[in-house]
Amino acid sequence: MLKILFNRLEQGYRTNNYPKEKITLFPRYRGLPSIHQDAPDDLARQCAAACPQDAIDADRKVIDMGRCIFCGTCERLSKGKFVSFTGNFEISVSEKKHLITDGTLPSLAEHSKKHFKKLFGRSLQLRQVSAAGCNACEADLNVLATPFFDLARFGINFVASPRHADAIVVTGPISRNMKTALLQTYEATPSPKVVIAVGSCAITGGPFRGSGEVTEGLDTLLPVDLFIPGCPPHPMTNLHALLRFFK
Ligand code: SF4
Ligand code: SF4
Predict the structure, then answer these.
(1) Would you say the C-alpha torsion 215, 220, 226, 230 has a positive or negative sign?
(2) For 148-206, what is each residue's pLDDT tens digit?
(3) Distance separating alpha carbons of residues 235 and 144, to the nearest angstrom
(4) Spatial separation of the C-alpha atoms in residues 221 and 216, rounded to whole Å
(5) Which of 2, 52, 119, 154 has the fewest Cβ atoms surrounding its Cβ within 10 A?
(6) Helices H / strands E in the chain, number of each
(7) How many Å lie between the centroid of ligand 1 and the Cα of residue 85?
(8) Are strands 56-57 and 62-64 parallel, antiparallel or unpaired?
(9) pLDDT of residue 10 exceeding 90
(10) Residues with Cβ within 6 A of ligand 2?
(11) pLDDT of 122 over the 90 cut
C-alpha cells in the first residue's frame, strides 16, 4: 500500500489542462491539411492520382477529410509544395460538406450553442457502437477515460446501455451484419439524441469504400450531428469535438 501511495506522489497530477492550456502534439502528427493554392496544377493532379482514397480534387485544390486516411502520400509526393499537414487537431465539423476543405474550416460555436449546449452542457452520456471498426478508432475513444484525458471531469461518460445514453458514437464502416444492431441501438436511445460519426470509415466507408459489404457513410442511415475525421482521429480531436459541441 505504501508503495502505491509513494508511486502516486512521485507521479503527481498527470491530467492535461486542455482546453485552458494549448496542447502541442508530436511533430509527426498529421492534422488539418494546409493546401497550397499556388502549387502547379500538374503536381496537384499527380497527388490526386496517387491518393489511395480518391480524396483530392485537383481542379478545385481541396481535400475531402471524410475520405482522407492521413497517410501522408500527397505531402511526401509534393514535398509539401501542394499539401502539408499542420499540427492542428481541431478538425471536427457539424456538416459533412465542410469536410471538403481548402485548408480552412468554419467555426462551430454557433451551431453547437443552438443545438447542444443547453441540453447536454452539464452531463453527456455516450454509447459507443463499433460497427466493424478495426479497433483503432475504438481504442482512441477508450483512451479518453485514462488519467491524461479524464473525460469524466467534464461530465461526459461512456455508458453500457443505449437507454442511458444521450448520444451514440459510431465507428467502423458499418458492415451489413452490423447495420441492424446499429439501427436498433439508435431506436433504443431516448430522444433528444445526438449521432456522432468517428473516423473515416463511419463518415465515408474509409479504406473499405466501394465494397458492397459496407455502408458509404453513416449519414445515409441516420441524421449525423458531428463528424470527427481521421484514421483514427487522435484522442485530442475527439476531446476537442466533444468539448466544443457540448460544453
Ligand atoms: S493524406 Fe489523405 S489526401 Fe493525402 S494521399 Fe493520403 S489519403 Fe489522400
Ligand atoms: S477509420 Fe481507420 S482507424 Fe477507424 S475503424 Fe476505420 S480503418 Fe480503423
Answers:
(1) positive
(2) 999 999 999 999 999 999 999 999 999 999 999 999 999 999 999 999 999 999 999 99
(3) 7
(4) 10
(5) 2
(6) 9, 10
(7) 10
(8) antiparallel
(9) no
(10) 133-134, 136-137, 171-172, 199-201, 206-207, 231-232
(11) no
What residue type is assigned to position 164 of the chain? Answer: H
Query: How many A from CA of 35 to the centre of ligand 1?
Result: 12
Pocket-testing residue among 130, 137, 209, ligand 2, by greatest number of atoms within 8 A of Cβ:
137
**Which ligand has the nearest atom to the CA of 171?**
2
Q: Would you give the DSSP letter of residue 18?
A: T
Span 60-113, pLDDT tens digits? 999 999 999 999 999 999 999 999 999 999 999 999 999 999 999 886 666 665
Q: Where are the domains of the chain?
A: 109-246
Task: Give Rg (Cα) of the chain.
Answer: 19
Expressed in angstroms and rounded, the spacing between residue 69 Cα and the centre of ligand 1 is: 6
Atom of ligand 2 nearest to the CA of 69: 2
The amino acid present at 94, given as its one-letter code, is S
Q: Residue 232 CA: which ligand 2 atom is closest?
A: 3
Average pLDDT over residues 3-25: 89
Q: In this structure, which residue's CA is closest to atom 6 in ligand 1?
A: 71
Ligand nearest to the backbone CA of 68: 1
The predicted pLDDT at position 117 comes to 72
Q: Give percent of the chain above pLDDT 70.
A: 96
Determine how many CB atoms are found less than 10 A away from the CB of residue 228. 27
Q: 109-246 sits in which CATH class?
A: alpha beta
Cα(75) to centroid(ligand 1), Å? 8
